[in-house]
Amino acid sequence: MKSKYRVLLIEDSKPLANLYIQYLSGEPIDLVCLETGQQALDYLEKSTPHLIMLDLKLPDMSGQEVLSWIKKQALPCSVIVVTSHGSVNTAVELMQQGADDFLEKPVSAERLKTTLKNQLEHVRLQHLVDDIKTSFERNTYQGFIGASLPMQNVYRIIDAAAPSKATVFITGESGTGKEVCAEAIHAQSPRTKAPFIALNCGAIPHDLMESEIFGHVKGAFTGASSERKGAAAQADGGTLFLDEICEMDLDLQKKLLRFIQTGRYQKVGGSKEESVDIRFLCATNKDPLHEVAAGKFREDLYYRLHVVPLALPPLRERGDDILTIATKFLRTYANEEGKSFTQFSPEAEVVLRHYPWPGNVRQLQNVIRNVVVLHDGDAVSIKQLPPPLNETLSDQEIQSLAPTTYVEPSPDAHEATTDSTPVESSDIRPLEDVEREAIQQAIEFCGGNVLKAAVLLKVSPSTLYRKKQAWETDTDNA
């Protein structure tokens, strides 16, 4: 505990309060001592400590009343109940009502400090989990749909990079949403009200690309009948997004490098230099370093642009995001086309989830559009999915991959099972041991990342942190 925590002690006995202050004098905490319940309530209305030590017997009200008020207000703090000998049952009841721990008088220095440290560590972990959970629960973000861990990482990078002027180099397969990502960065930046100009360097002929970026003067080349502003001038004060940057001609790459370095450029056919204030974003579906090695992309330009790298995950690595996105597309297109679709059959969900999606989100979007246009119904079936999706998995594979549904066994089935397959008591392990083993295996599989393990186990991260802390405490005390 490096940082100081705020601790409130509610104890009407001054000798005991002074003793606790002496015990905790070396701990990194700010300790406030109050003698009555009303003083505590007045204090808590203005300030919320990390931890409260609450005596059960107070001169003006009971500790139960104070605890009830704290829980009713939903204060984000831990409560340790301090009780006299013989009141342990009452303390246990209070823990059921929301107290986090209890101490029985007389309290030793070691017991007090250990309990305090454990609860404050729990507070720290809970705050960490809450921060992670806040990020983790973002199901949508500036045009993106999805709550998977890879996308949460994308959202965090955008949050961090957007406020600056640093160039972001976006990479990802075709159809992963690189332009959506660029628009999200612009929308999150201080330039959000200024223009966002996007150019696809692979879709514009090389001999016209320079004019598209820098503009041209009248008569600069055949067909230039009037002066034209380029993307550079249009994006002044805002953001210029160069998609498929690795497709740009090498000669133009040299001019672009100077433009990025100086913010100055010349129109095609012009002699006057112009200056603009631009935030650069770029993207490619290729490996830029491979293009540098092949001599197709300037190394100095790569290092000028590659300030904040941002890799978009392919759809096949985004887990349940596939179904979330597909359902969103399905309901949107069904509404547009006047169809009844609202969901996918369980078998169709299995196919969608396990198809590799080489075209990523763009391919998924086209597949769902195809289904809605050609079919109708409440739920999309496998037969309604277009090739090759409807041919990807066999019936046996679909059944093996489908989520299992619990069916209440009949009494006859139960009797048949017990008669034909008797279970030895030695074969039954305590549920606590099985749970601990499963959690530890998941954490180990995820390289120690508790959040990832929680996702795999489909439980709250706070549950894993709490259980992990309890096991470590038991090990230390063994």
UniProtKB/TrEMBL annotation:
InterPro entries: AAA+_ATPase, AAA_lid_NorR, CheY-like_superfamily, Homeodomain-like_sf, HTH_Fis, P-loop_NTPase, Sig_transdc_resp-reg_receiver, Sigma_54_int. Keywords: ATP-binding, DNA-binding, Nucleotide-binding, Phosphoprotein, Transcription, Transcription regulation. Residues 404-429 are annotated as: Disordered. Residues 144-373 form the Sigma-54 factor interaction domain. It comes from the Bacteria. Residues 6-120 form the Response regulatory domain. The modification 4-aspartylphosphate is found at D55. Pfam families: AAA_lid_14 (PF25601), HTH_8 (PF02954), Response_reg (PF00072), Sigma54_activat (PF00158). This is Sigma-54-dependent transcriptional regulator. It comes from Enterovibrio norvegicus.
